[in-house]
Backbone:
């Protein structure tokens, strides 16, 4: 149908981004192609150390999924998106396809080994998440392609992650957010991935902050170095949620707390992680 209707058609998943845009007349497609009746498109399965999410898997289904629960940072993300009404309709595939700079999924999945399966009329291809998200509201999808599945590798033993966002209230996007995924070997950090949300046109991998932790014991000193590097990597804009300076300070505080929580989870502690509300 996308091939038939060309630019006049838009895919409809949960409608939680598209319908508000249509109400505001920022989007006015002549045709809506409803994905909601494709069987199996909501499935969440684990196979060979990988969790497979059908593109139509709802945030609420991911929050409740034992397979997704094997990667606790995914639960942090799913459980913190907006309110229960949005979580019951909104989908992981729609969120990535929308590529909203404030969307939670891309930030979290940037810290994991995640791939997006894209299905078109003539081809099927797998794109790594960093290659899929091109810019704000821009992805690698061609017009006749849809996201069919997202796959996420389960991190190795000794790993732990945490995702924290600072929000004014539940049904709004975060002011800033931080995702941290660590692999520990004894007291030393063997591997680190840190991504920052809402402080740039896309989620930002804070590579210097990761380097500050990798191969080091996690101490107040190494955390402080990582926090400084994360603040330097942020590229926030001043807006109704706060000034650029405020967001830079905020993202550092979120990174610090997320590192501490990730270390505890990597050590096997069961830690509940919830967003921070103003
Ligand atoms: C009040 C409110 C608060 C929100 N707060 C948050 C928040 O805090 N954090 C957050 O991350 N999100 C938030 N959202 C957005 C929500 O997470 C959406 O679910 C998400 O943006 C994706 O929307 P959807 O699945 O409903 O897709 P839709 O709105 O149906 O589609 C979104 C876009 O993606 C395209 N699309 C959808 N599915 C596919 C597919 N499989 N392949 C290719 N293209 C596709 C559509 O054509 C459309 O352009 C909020 C939404 C609302 C209404």
Residues:
């Amino acid at each position: 149908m996308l091939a038939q209707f060309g630019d006049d058609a838009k895919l409809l998943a949960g409608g939680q981004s598209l319908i508000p845009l249509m109400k505001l007349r920022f989007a006015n497609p002549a045709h809506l192609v409803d994905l909601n009746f494709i069987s199996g498109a909501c499935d969440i399965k684990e196979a060979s150390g990988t969790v497979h999410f059908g593109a139509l898997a709802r945030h609420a289904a991911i929050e409740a999924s034992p397979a997704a629960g094997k990667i606790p940072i995914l639960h942090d993300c799913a459980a913190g998106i907006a309110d229960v009404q949005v979580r019951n309709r909104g989908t992981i595939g729609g969120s990535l396809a929308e590529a909203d700079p404030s969307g939670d999924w891309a930030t979290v999945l940037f810290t994991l080994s995640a791939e997006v399966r894209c299905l078109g009329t003539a081809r099927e291809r797998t794109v790594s998440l960093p290659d899929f998200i091109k810019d704000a509201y821009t992805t690698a999808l061609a017009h006749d392609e849809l996201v069919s599945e997202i796959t996420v590798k389960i991190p190795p033993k000794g790993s732990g992650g945490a995702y924290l966002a600072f929000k004014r209230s539940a049904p709004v996007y975060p002011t800033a957010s931080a995702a941290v995924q660590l692999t520990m070997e004894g007291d030393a950090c063997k591997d680190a991935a840190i991504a920052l949300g809402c402080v740039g046109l896309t989620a930002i991998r804070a590579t210097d902050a990761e380097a500050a932790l990798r191969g080091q014991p996690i101490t107040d000193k190494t955390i402080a170095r990582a926090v400084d590097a994360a603040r330097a990597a942020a590229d926030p804009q001043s807006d109704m949620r706060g000034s650029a300076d405020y967001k830079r300070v905020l993202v550092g505080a979120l990174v610090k707390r997320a590192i501490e929580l990730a270390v505890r989870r990597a050590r096997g502690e069961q830690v509940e992680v919830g967003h921070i509300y103003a």
Q: What stands out?
A: The chain is about 35% helix and 25% strand.
